[in-house]
Specification:
Length: about 575
């Protein structure tokens, strides 16, 4: 090899690397200025390349992708996209794709419900518009829309589609419809923006905002005041307005209620009540996701009205005697372990009722009182009973499978005060009690059909079912070593640990199916190598603080909400879900 060729081989990569780091990215644009103020919310991604780089850089990807044969080249796609975006070197479409910022505005939500003998079903159809800020010349953008929108529509709808166009306030709208259905794709170019929607009105409302004919979410005070709390180095950011919370929360709780009853009236009552309460307190919801070398850090803020946020922040303070660490290890068969660390936890429901009910209207106040009464009845407490001084500042809740009741581990200050109340709880509805020795611990077992049992261990009272006794007794009381004391925020009053990392494996299986390197069978998760790889991933943990601005939660997990990629991985043998969402379902 000649010296000249050798010099070229050395200098070219060095010059390319130097150019890459010397060239700055195009400045980021506040995407909320394109989102109508009337929207329910939006999701923003500043760089798809960053998302790809972040996802392929997680420990879950590094551990599992090689075992599934997922190409290592996928990990380079983010870097390549970033290089193309900085330099502008590459095919025109690739440059536009690499430089673009994206936002999806949710402008409406249609819901249809029906009830079968065994299930109450809610079918959701969001109305949305995807906006891409391409940072490119209008002529380039217009040409791309006219050339690529028909191809995209044909891939979605097949050959049986109709095409039309219309002019809206000077902008051309390209409309593609699947014949005989309500499915529709609407496309438009406006300056350097590309807009794609599943509803013409959604796209028109975004054009009105873009062109200054209607206000945007940039003026929303809740968004402006709180975005920094969750968007530090966020790869993905989301915001739901107060109107969006009013719309989505009842649907979410109705779906949850449908797991316990198929009575449409009861489900509707739960949805109406939740909507009423949210209007009294919630002003918005913010979300941010950031990649780290070990996984994904997600931040959530449920923004509250100032007076309610202040009252909650004052009431939900960690107790001075709360132990350090993240709480007890999870017993066998459990899914979540949640540790509540609040000063005076024994009378917390009553204190919250006293503080918040004057802030609510009559309906919301009565609903809160009924909730507190039901909570008392569940523990066997009668009007006038108080356990405020008898218990400490911590309660740990252990959630097993959906078919098992939850267990509670309560810090105790005065056993003598609790024994009469405990006896009343165990003998409710005329049940008898007996003693049972399990693993050296004497437990009191009730004949109640729910199998409720209890025992004291050190300075703790444990309430669980008879079938859970051995697992709870053998649960180690030391803090989970995977979560250091320094990692727990000082103001966190709720610490929740998830015991399984299976979602990370399911996400990687979905990617293997999508890239066609494997059939992605769930049985692969039972293979020894994959079990070992999953075992090296950190458990998901979240910390919740109550601030004057609202309820703030920070979650650290192997893949976070990106586990939803599994929904794109094709059909799998799973139970039918009670809610569905899709582009034009």
């Amino acid at each position: 090899m000649t010296r000249k060729r050798l010099a070229v081989l050395i200098l070219v990569p060095c010059l390319a690397a130097g150019a890459y780091f010397a060239l700055r990215r195009y400045p980021r644009v506040p995407m909320e200025r394109y989102i109508p103020a009337s929207a329910l919310g939006f999701v923003e991604v500043d760089s798809l390349g960053d998302v790809m780089s972040g996802l392929t850089g997680t420990l879950a990807w590094r551990e599992i992708a090689p075992l599934l044969g997922v190409s290592s080249q996928l990990g380079q796609m983010g870097l390549v996209a970033d290089l193309i975006g900085r330099t502008g070197l590459g095919p025109e479409e690739a440059v536009v794709f690499a430089r673009s910022q994206y936002a999806a505005a949710i402008t409406g939500l249609d819901a249809e419900s029906n009830s079968t003998g065994e299930r109450f079903n809610i079918n959701l159809r969001p109305r949305f518009c995807l906006i891409a800020e391409t940072l490119s010349k209008p002529g380039v953008v217009s040409r791309l829309v006219h050339e690529r929108a028909p191809i995209l529509a044909r891939r979605i709808f097949g050959d049986s589609m109709s095409e039309s166009s219309q002019i809206y306030s000077g902008d051309e709208l390209l409309v593609y419809e699947s014949q005989g259905t309500r499915r529709r794709l609407v496309a438009a170019a406006s300056g350097g923006l590309i807009l794609l929607a599943n509803d013409a009105d959604s796209l028109k409302s975004c054009l009105d905002t873009i062109n200054g004919r209607s206000p945007s979410l940039a003026a929303d005070s809740v968004l402006a005041d709180n975005k920094a709390a969750v968007d530090r180095s966020a790869a993905v950011f989301g915001f739901i307005t107060a109107a969006g919370v009013d719309k989505l929360l009842p649907l979410g709780l109705a779906e949850a209620a449908s797991r316990f009853t198929t009575d449409p009236e009861r489900i509707a009552l739960a949805a109406d009540l939740s909507q009423h309460l949210s209007k009294q307190a919630v002003t918005g919801f913010l979300y941010g996701a950031e990649f780290t070398s070990s996984g994904v850090t997600e931040r959530y803020l449920t923004a509250l009205k100032p007076e309610i946020g202040g009252d909650l922040a004052e009431a939900m303070q960690p107790g001075p005697n709360s132990r350090a660490g993240a709480g007890p290890r999870a017993p066998e068969g459990s899914q979540y372990v949640t540790r509540l660390r609040v000063k005076g936890v024994g009378d917390l429901p009553d204190r919250l009722l006293k503080r918040l009910s004057p802030r609510m209207d009559l309906v919301a106040g009565l609903a809160m009182r009924e909730f507190v009464k039901a909570f008392h009845r569940g523990l066997g407490l009668e009007p006038g009973d108080s356990i405020a001084d008898a218990v400490g500042d911590e309660v740990t809740v252990v959630q097993f499978s959906a078919d098992e009741p939850t267990a509670m581990v309560i810090d105790v200050n005065d056993r003598a005060r609790l024994r009469p109340l405990l006896n009343r709880y165990l003998t409710a509805s005329g049940a008898r009690v007996s003693t049972q020795v399990s693993d050296g611990v004497e437990a009191i077992v009730s004949s109640n059909p729910d199998g409720r049992s209890a025992f004291f261990q050190d300075n703790r009272l444990v309430l669980c079912s008879k079938n859970q006794l051995s697992r709870i007794i053998n649960m180690q009381s030391s803090a989970d070593e995977s979560i250091s004391h320094a990692a727990v925020p000082a103001g966190a009053c709720i610490v929740r640990t998830k015991t399984t990392v299976r979602e990370a494996g399911e996400m990687m299986l979905a990617i293997a199916r999508l890239t066609r390197v494997s059939d992605g069978s769930d049985e692969m998760l039972e293979e020894e190598l994959l079990i070992s790889a999953l075992g090296r991933l950190p458990k998901a943990v979240s910390f919740t603080e109550f601030r004057e601005a609202g309820v703030y939660t920070e979650s650290r997990s192997p893949v976070g909400s990106f586990s939803l990629i599994g929904l794109l991985g094709g059909e799998r043998n799973q139970p039918t879900q009670s809610s569905h969402a899709g582009m034009n379902r």
